Amino acid sequence: MTTNSGSRREIDVVRQEPDGNLTRISLPPIVSLIGVTAVLYLGRDVLLPLAIALLLTFALAPIVSALRKMSIPKVLAVVMTVLMAFIVIACFTFLVASQISNLAQNIPTYQANIIEKIHSLRELGTGGGIIERLTGAAERVGQELQAGTQVAEISTQKPLPVEVVSHESPIDILRNIVVPLISPFSTAGLIIVVVVFMLLEREDLRDRFIRLVGHGDLHKTTEALQDAGSRVGRYLLMQLVINTIYAIPITIGLWLLGIPNALLWGGLTLILRFVPYIGPAIGMMMPLLLTLAVSPGWMPLIWTAALFLVMELISGNVLEPWLYGSETGLSSLAIIIAAIFWAWLWGPLGLVLSTPLTVCLVVLGRHVSQFEFLDVLLGNEPVLEPHARVYQRLLAGDPYEAADFAEDYLEDEYLVDFYDAVAMPALALGETDRQRGVMTNEQRVRFASAANTLVQELADLAEDEEEENGNSDELSRDSEASGSEDSEPALPGGEGRRLICTGGRGEIDDAAAAMVAQVLEIQGAEAIVGSHQSFTPVGLAALDLDGVDTMVLAYLNPTSLSQARHAVRRLKRRKAGLRVGLLVPMLPDGRGRNAITEDGAGADFITTTVAETVRRALADESAKPLKALPKRHPVRRRPAPKAVGKKAAPKKPGRRKAQEEAPA
Fold this sequence. Notes:
Layout: E1 2-5, E2 8-16, E3 22-27, H1 29-42, H2 44-69, H3 74-106, H4 111-124, H5 130-155, H6 170-200, H7 202-213, H8 218-256, H9 262-272, H10 278-294, H11 299-323, H12 332-352, H13 354-367, H14 372-378, H15 386-395, H16 399-409, H17 415-436, H18 441-457, H19 459-469, H20 472-482, E4 498-503, H21 507-522, E5 526-529, H22 537-542, E6 550-554, H23 561-574, E7 579-583, H24 598-601, E8 605-607, H25 610-617, H26 655-661
Parallel strand pairs: 4-5, 4-6, 6-7, 7-8
Antiparallel strand pairs: 1-2, 2-3
């Protein structure tokens, strides 16, 4: 069983105490990973053939399924598939072995060419060249070693000849000679038997695996099995196709160049390309060395190197992206690390099996929560959402990497889409951290400055979009005429309009306002970027509102109702007929919905996205009148209560009564 505690995932192990009670011991995944690695290393003699058989089962299962669809019985389909596969492997092995034997017999005939090339290299270094110096140094070292050996022989007595006679029993001969020869054949036979039974019992093994690890969640387990089977099977099949397409031109090219044993080098190239990265390099070096030995000149060596380089470029840039692309789901660094790990664990065969085995681990991490870290470490899927990635870069004060990411995003989208889907959520994350108190003043200023720099870096792309827009009104009409009912209407044109975009409370709001202003400029409007300090008495008096019919205020803090209401009233008092709109984006946690309303703030419109803000700001709408403040009713003062125990002071007579009582 597993338990989750925050972001920490642990594995529970049940242990029975002497009194009969059961206790749970939580083990972190790293401990389990170390234990599994130890088991794989210690049991490699047994597990390696099983791993090869499992991968061959993945590769041959589609062929068996295709034969079953042709109404061929299951047993016959399995036997035919396995027999055909291992006959091909046996023929290939025999061909490679015969070519190696032929090469070993012909090596002495290549000595003349090797000596001639050595002489030519020495001639290149005559006249004090580096080759001559190296040769002289090597000769002097050899002379010193030979002189030391002669002195040692003189100082020592002549040793007596000793003859070692070994008496080996038939059992020792059997163990030292016959067993090493039989071992590969026994391993191959074991693999064949396991593959046959895995193909025959494939459905039963699948059900048992589901019952063992995922009976409580059949959907997730079935998805994981299908994902692993499709990825590994497709990878092995496509890699075989690519290697074959790669090896055939190499074999023909080497044969045309007169390189001996062309079939051998083509076959080794086909096998070695299963080893990631270093396999193709090894497959290229051996034919180059042989070409250097057998050819009298240097041109065959150059042509051989060019042949391998051209085929590598075609394979890496055309064949692999076309046939399987990123079907493995592994990052480039993960493939290298996996090759090192499996080579250390299981030797050369582990190096060949490293990619498909690591694919299985990534699928395990993708569908099993306890091993999610494997998918994060080895997978090629982005681990950060786009807005989180941009926020992290802006927080670190690196707007240029964020701009590079934006340029990649804008290859298929428009700038307003990037701002709505990525940039605004990134600013909202920054505002959330500011409200939580985890962002210092220095970080806030750096974050806002980086966001403004990002907007400036995208100015060239904004100009390109503005040029592509042309006549915004015609584009809008064409889009509305040809678009469907569900499609979002195009943004209106803003020619002849003058607007001001400013932040509401802080520097982060100013960055959001700059993004809105840039999109307004793309639509042809004149957009002026202001500062949140414009709402001070001095700033408001200096604000130029001539020709401005609409002003947009950005508030990333949804609790700014009182500040927004105050700013709207001051702006509408500053200029009659001014439209004031508020941009209040949704925060990542969902806060911000209906926090600031039009009635409460007195604004002409309130939006949550940049596109909606631009659409409402450029709309032909009249400004709402300034809402009058509620009248205050006068409150009558109550007379002060009389003091208890004190004699009331005599009332002074009124003015009229005093005149009547006065003497004439």
